[in-house]
Structures are given as C-alpha cells and as structure tokens.
Amino acid sequence: MHAFDILGDPVRRRILELLADGERAAGDLGAVVQAEFGISQPAVSQHLKVLRDSGFATVRAEGTRRLYAVDAEPLRQVDEWLDPYRHFWNQRLDALATELARGRRERRAADPTPKGTDTP
Hints:
Largest sheet: 3 strands, antiparallel
Region (Disordered): 101-120
Protein name: DNA-binding transcriptional ArsR family regulator
Structural class: mainly alpha
Keywords: DNA-binding, Transcription, Transcription regulation
Shape: elongated
InterPro entries: ArsR-like_HTH, HTH_ArsR_DNA-bd_dom, HTH_MetalResp_TranReg, WH-like_DNA-bd_sf, WH_DNA-bd_sf
GO molecular function: DNA binding; DNA-binding transcription factor activity
Distance between the termini: 62 Å
C-alpha cells in the first residue's frame, strides 16, 4: 500500500498525531479514536494493523499492554517526495512571516508606554 493511501485515512492520521508525542498503549489510542470517530475497537485495531504492516508504527509488549510508537522512516520518505513541491508553500510562509513582523513593529511604534516601566 502506498504511503499516501495510509495517510489518506483520517483515523490513521489521528492515530499518528496521538503517537507524535511518544509511545501510547493500544487501549489509550482506542479510547480516544473510538470517542472521536465513533468506530468499534476492532476497527481501531484494524487501523493499527495497517499502520504496523506499512511501517508507520511499531508495537512492543509491556506486560499485557501493547505500546505503539511512530516509525519515522516512512514519514521521511513522504517528506522527500514532497520536497520538489515545497517552494509552493514556503514562499507563502515567508510572506506571512514578513507581514507578522511588520504588524509587531507597527504595534510597538503605536504603543505610547515607555519600555521597561511598569505602569499600573
């Protein structure tokens, strides 16, 4: 299955978002995903299996729990594939950063409060 087929599913993307902060137990993932998407536990397990089989997630046993984690390699491959297209949005983000900096300068220039003083 192609990486974009894996990432095209909102449930699988949500699971990867949950795993982005670190390892999580299958039960924790299932509880969040079931609540947010209204799907069954077996359906969540099927999505976890797809992520595992495609290499996007790893699993290890800790006692009776199964702990899932992101495997970054497939995401790096997606990032590499997107690289030739990155200029389409990087220029826009640079323009946004320029506008944000201009707004900060204008607000500072318009603020009559002297810097370094605490006025009640």
